[in-house]
């Protein structure tokens, strides 16, 4: 005979009503302290290695846009590079950074936008800079152009659209005059054939004291608030590893620009665009016009309100300009 059902007590009813609510929100009791722990760890890491953390954050952000960092073994060690996804057969774009704490990440906002135009985009860290291998060699412009060439060959890229920023523009030019058959279009951003006087100006982009480091951080990492001097000192200590490569490139300007000028006829038929900014103190309108005169058939594009890095300040307009150039064929079609 079945036992009569027992009426639950008031305490049992209250327990059933409360228990699900506790289970539903139990994750908050874990997520809160865990988030605080992660943020605390990130803050501690930023205090110790601010440049490394900023680069890590940038890499993580562009990872959502299908941009990854890889490495390639070349003659003098490992060269790291950023590359977009896509399919084989897409027209290649190679972006060459110049001076500044970002290295290849100076193109972080440009790469996904250009890739949307159905291009395969590659941005190497030059040798001796950022996560590429550092060795006791002379990192001249010619040396960097040679390393760039090895990367292009190993990635099996052909008819590349080549872009260079400040001293990276000279690296791009050096590669182009030595391999005119490999370069489809050439874009020089805020640099190229600037001479010793221009190199002296560009040298100011290499932080050597707190004021210049503060300015470099402001130009390179937009939205970063003013920080204690100790952070800027640690930034300078981290960037000291890149100092040799950047200094060597600037010191090689007279000889390597001489090599470029002696072979400019090799790129006479290469579509060349010069992009410069109205507020860039390191590469002025007069320098852009001089470069335009040295490269017959070239054209100029001016970003009137940009400063040192138009690719960071106005990434949408900058990427649109690049894609427009890359889609031009002979005769401006």
Helices, by number, come to 14
Q: Strand count, sense and closure of the main sheet?
A: 8 strands, mixed
CATH architecture: 3-Layer(aba) Sandwich
Report low-confidence residues grouped into runs of 5 or more: none
**Assembly annotation:** single chain
- Label the structural class: alpha/beta
Shape: globular
Q: What's the Cα radius of gyration?
A: 26 Å
Provide the residue-averaged pLDDT. 89
Q: Estimate the strand proportion.
A: 15-25%
CATH level 3 topology: Rossmann fold
Please give the alpha-carbon distance between the first and last residues: 94 Å
Structure overview:
It contains 14 helices and 8 strands. It is an alpha/beta fold and 333 residues long. The chain has an 8-stranded mixed β-sheet, with helices on both faces. β7 (271-277), α12 and β8 form a beta-alpha-beta unit. The radius of gyration is 26 Å and the shape is globular. 40% of the residues are buried. The mean pLDDT is 89.
